[in-house]
Amino acid sequence: MARKLAVIGAGLMGSGIAQVSARAGWDVVLRDVTDAALTRGTDGIRASYDKFVAKGKLEAADAEAALKRISTTTDLGAAADADVVVEAVFERIDVKQEIFRELDRLVRDDAVLASNTSAIPITKIAAVTEHPERVVGTHFFSPVPMMQLCELVRGYKTSDETLAKAREFAESTGKTCIVVNRDVAGFVTTRLISALVVEAAKLHESGVASAEDIDTACKLGFGHAMGPLATADLTGVDILLHAAENIYTESQDEKFAPPEAMRRMVDAGDIGRKSGQGYYTY
Ligand SMILES: NC(=O)c1ccc[n+]([C@@H]2O[C@H](COP(=O)([O-])OP(=O)(O)OC[C@H]3O[C@@H](n4cnc5c(N)ncnc54)[C@H](O)[C@@H]3O)[C@@H](O)[C@H]2O)c1
Predict the structure, then answer these.
(1) Ligand 1 centroid vs 87 CA: distance in angstroms?
(2) Which of 53, 70, 219, 267 is the most buried (most CB within 10 A)?
(3) Residue 26 — very low, low, confident or very high, per pLDDT cuts 50/70/90?
(4) Which distant-in-sequence residues (6+ apart) come within 8 Å of 111 by Cβ?
(5) Helix (H, G, I), strand (E, B), or coil: what is residue 89?
(6) In the chain, what is the greatest distance between 2 CA atoms, to the nearest angstrom?
(7) Which residues of 73-94 are buried (b: 16+ CB within 10 A; e: fewer)?
(8) Which atom of ligand 1 is found nearest the CA of 95?
(9) pLDDT, tens digit, for every residue of 42-73?
(10) Which ligand 1 atom is the nearest neighbour of the CA of 117?
(11) Contact (CB, 8 A) for 120 and 183
C-alpha cells in the first residue's frame, strides 16, 4: 500500500512538495484554509506536470496517475493517518506552532512531523508538542520540482529515527539531503548565502569593486551559476537583509551584520528585480 503524506499549506512550496511526492508514489492529501487556495495549488501542479509532459520528461499517463494520488481538504484531521506530515504555511512562528500543537494531538504515534521553514528554529516549533523527538525540518528549495536539495534540520530533541524517516521521505522524491546537526539560525544554506551576500555588499558599498565585477569573480573564479549581488536582486534584497539580520541577532557574529548602505537601499525601496532597481537596473 502506498504511504500517505499530508502537506499543510498549498502555496508555492506546499504544492511543489505535493507534486514531487505524488510523482514518487505517495498518496498525498493537501490541506489549506480555503478552497480557493487549494484550487490555486492543484492548478499549479497540473500546469507543472503538463510542462514536463510537453518536454517529454514525463508520460501523460504517469502525470494523470500522480494527479489522482493528490486529494485536497480544509480539514486538518485528514492528517490523522499520515506517515509523514510536511507543514508549508506562512513563515510565522505563531501560525506554525498552532498547527504543530494540533497535529501533535491527532497524528499516529509513529508519524513524522516536518516543517519546511526556511528560518524558524525547529526547536521552537517542536517545543509546543508533547513529542518534540518526532519533529524535524525538511527545507525544500524553490521551485521544488527543479531544485535537487533538501536541507534536513535536527531540532534540539529530534530523534535519529525521525531524521532517518525524513531522509527516506525526501530521497524518495529524488532529492539529495544535507543534515544540519545543530539547529542554528539560518541552518547551513541561509548562513552561507548570507555571509557571501553581506561581504559582497560591503565590497560594493566601500567601492572596492563594481557589482558586475564582484558577481563575475564568483561566476568565473568559483564556478557559481550566479553572482551574490544578482542573487540578492533575484531573491529580494529585503529578504536577504532580513535573513542576515536574523542570523546576526542570534549568533552575534559580525560577519552576518548587514552594511548600512544595504539597509538604506531597502528603506528606499530598491529591493531588486521586483522593484526594477537593486544592485542592477531592470
Ligand atoms: N518561497 C520560497 O522560496 C521558500 C523556499 C524554502 C522554504 N520556504 C518556506 O516554506 C513555507 C511556505 O512558503 P511558501 O512560499 O509556499 O508560502 P505561500 O504564501 O506561497 O503559501 C502558504 C500557504 O499556507 C496557507 N496557510 C496559511 N495558514 C494555514 C493553515 N493554518 N493551514 C493550512 N494552510 C495555511 C496559505 O493559505 C497559503 O496557501 C514558509 O515557511 C517559507 O519560509 C519558502
Answers:
(1) 8
(2) 70
(3) very high
(4) 82, 83, 84, 85, 134
(5) coil
(6) 61
(7) eeebebbbebbbbbbbbeeeee
(8) 31
(9) 999 999 999 999 999 999 999 999 999 999 99
(10) 41
(11) no
